[in-house]
Design a protein that fits this description.
With 183 residues, the protein is an all-alpha fold. The chain has helices at 11-17, 21-43, 46-62, 73-91, 99-102, 122-131, 134-145, 150-157, 161-181. Helix content is 66%, strand content 0%. Helix 7 crosses helix 9. The longest helix has 23 residues, at 21-43.
């Protein structure tokens, strides 16, 4: 028998559900920074990330009555932020290449990079991640920073799992290249 532990009710969220304006402000302050960083990692544009953050909180507050503690509030809100961020990227018309359809990807063609040689610095890593193309940065951020697996990312992006795996491999290689070059 598998036991599932559901998140406990949060009094702040319950006060928001009852319409307490101060509680909305406190809830926003609790999650805004983390959610902004999530949006920024995906869209790589501060203005867009700020707009997405506001849209996400507006949607979350509007639908707060639907939140039932099946997950944590932060996880629920993060999913809203990620969906809005992906929608923003889709407006930019990212072309997700279906590797299986083209047959263009051959792992033997990949240049092997020794990751242990590279001494990483936080600022350089952040700058390098932000320099990645949108598709690479999105998959890399969702996988490494947000903790999603490739199946979940594929579902979020509406692409094949092999596409997310390939995007991740290429993003990681491009990131390592940027780090070696000191972008």
């Amino acid at each position: 028998m598998k036991l599932t532990v559901l998140p406990q009710q949060d009094e702040l969220i319950e006060r928001c559900k009852r319409g307490d304006a101060l509680s909305y402000k406190k809830l926003y302050e609790r999650y805004a920074r983390a959610m902004y960083n999530t949006c920024l990692r995906i869209v790589n544009n501060t203005t867009e990330a700020e707009d997405i953050l506001q849209e996400s909180f507006t949607e979350a507050f509007k639908n707060l009555h639907k939140f039932e503690y099946r997950t944590s509030f932060g996880g629920w809100l993060k999913q809203i932020c990620i969906n809005h961020s992906i929608n923003q990227l889709n407006k930019r018309r990212i072309n997700w290449m279906e590797i299986d359809a083209t047959g263009a990807y051959n792992i033997a063609d990949e240049h092997v990079i020794d990751e242990n040689e590279i001494q990483l610095k936080v600022d350089l890593v952040k700058k390098s991640i932000m320099a990645l193309p949108d598709g690479y940065r999105t998959v890399l951020s969702l996988y490494l920073l947000e903790g999603y697996d490739h199946e979940e990312i594929a579902e979020i992006l509406h692409v094949a799992t092999s596409t997310t795996r390939t995007q991740y491999i290429r993003a990681k290689q491009k990131l390592l290249q940027y780090l070696k070059e000191g972008i």
